[in-house]
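can u do me a favor
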């Protein structure tokens, strides 16, 4: 990934209905979304000039905003068109698109009903989320001390920026210990997800994955489940205790950024990237690049 700071780049960003120069896409320091976390976002990949599953991501963005109590002032079709416009304006064919909506700076305080709802869409080149050489061998995950909260305490169905605070804490701690990422449990002690990806565990011809009842049912997760079923593999969605990880031979994670990435280690648990992980990596890559 480029070391150029994101605020100091060339290019164009779509902001509230128009394409503006990258460096001019700014907000005020008293923006509600910054102070109170009232922003929602998406991450979408572009492969060979095609934005993969854009409609699903846009629908989730709109629904996330509704869960946080506001309506994005653009239709799904308008948002989809804006995403395509910003990709074209930046001359990108393989990239990452980041739409984000937030409450503005008209009111400062917990209550902010009168604030303008803003929408920005940026796009940039973003290669593999993990080191490519390590990714093929399987990444190493730490065990986070932070847990996914109960859905009675957070809007867990929204892809809301505020929910990622413990993800940043977990990933920083993991990287500080030499790991690529961290596995998070939920408030009950069940396996949940990594800091930005869903997790799958392979035993025989079965793939087990946690029930997404307090974290996002990822769009990539749904796509990979479809690919696995097409191969005749059985998907088992259930609550998984950490101690059960001894029983699985393969593990991989999925996400827009992570794509399909094998895992070789989670704390004391060891896995060997094998035929199932490799097949689904190849199937996913073929799907996103083949235009199907």
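np, heres the sequence
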């Amino acid at each position: 990934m480029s070391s150029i700071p994101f605020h100091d780049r060339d290019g164009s960003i779509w902001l509230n209905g128009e394409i503006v120069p990258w460096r001019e896409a700014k907000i005020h320091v008293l923006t509600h979304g910054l102070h109170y976390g009232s922003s929602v976002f998406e991450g979408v990949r572009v492969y060979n000039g095609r934005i993969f599953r854009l409609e699903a991501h846009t629908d989730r963005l709109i629904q996330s905003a509704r869960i946080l109590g506001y309506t994005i002032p653009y239709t799904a079709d308008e948002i989809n068109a804006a995403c395509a416009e910003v990709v074209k304006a930046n001359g990108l064919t393989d990239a990452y698109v980041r739409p984000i909506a937030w409450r503005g700076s008209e009111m400062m305080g917990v209550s902010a009903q009168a604030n303008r709802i803003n929408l920005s869409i940026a796009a940039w080149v973003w290669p593999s989320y993990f080191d490519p050489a390590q990714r093929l061998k399987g990444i190493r995950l730490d065990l986070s001390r932070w847990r996914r909260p109960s859905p009675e305490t957070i809007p867990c169905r929204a892809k809301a920026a505020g929910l990622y605070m413990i993800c940043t804490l977990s990933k920083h701690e993991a990287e500080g210990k030499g790991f690529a990422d961290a596995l998070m449990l939920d408030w009950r002690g069940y396996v949940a997800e990594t800091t930005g990806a869903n997790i799958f565990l392979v035993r025989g011809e079965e793939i087990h994955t946690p029930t997404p009842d307090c974290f996002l049912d990822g769009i990539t997760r749904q796509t990979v489940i479809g690919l696995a079923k097409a191969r005749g593999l059985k998907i088992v969605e259930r609550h998984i205790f950490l101690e059960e990880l001894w029983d699985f031979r393969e593990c991989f994670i999925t996400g827009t950024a992570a794509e399909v990435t094998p895992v070789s280690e989670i704390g004391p648990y060891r896995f060997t990237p094998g035929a199932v992980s490799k097949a689904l990596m190849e199937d996913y890559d073929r799907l996103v690049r083949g235009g199907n």
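The chain has seven helices and 16 strands. hope that helps!!
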